[in-house]
Amino acid sequence: MTLDCIPFARCMPAYERRDFDSIHETMTISLDRLARAGAEFFVCSDNTVHHALERPGPACSARTT
């Protein structure tokens, strides 16, 4: 098990603008780190970031479930 955390404060200006594409880019950084650490899946326990994760964008190294 591993954990990666980018402080959500980094995403708050984008979240307030509803710029989910920008948040998606930030989440991709975290997901790529997890994938490089060997993660085969991830759990996102935030109940608002899912809007960003559902956006179209570059494929993440980790499989989203």
From TrEMBL:
Family annotation (InterPro entries): Asp/Glu_race
Gene3D superfamilies: 3.40.50.1860
Species name: Amycolatopsis acidicola
Highest taxon of source: Bacteria
GO molecular function, one term: racemase and epimerase activity, acting on amino acids and derivatives
Name assigned to this protein: Isochorismatase family protein
